[in-house]
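ENCODED BACKBONE
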Amino acid sequence: MTGTPDLLELAKVSAEQAYAPYSRFQVGCAVFTERGGLFTGCNVENASYGLTICAERNAIFHAVSEEGPAMKIATLAVVALGQEFPPCGACRQVIAEFATPETTVWFLRDGKPVAMTMAELLPASFRI
């Protein structure tokens, strides 16, 4: 299940479930783990904006809750309905926490799938 169309389609379906009354950006994410798990998430906004959670973090936290703290992302796809953009900076850092520099992140640009590695998306990630 590492095919791009499958993960992008799952992310799109998840985006349709987003709660986004403030930004109107419905975002979905699909995460495929190294153990073969498949997890999705959507953004859930809140009137207190700092309490909002992005789709990527929602999906990743779901994966960790099911597979445990050793969960590793094999590949990830993110789709925003009616928009095209890669994960935000905060999500890039969270993805990096559970990925390798070679982990592929998929998103849409000009209607076409784009793949970037984590090293390309966040070349100077915070590590301890």
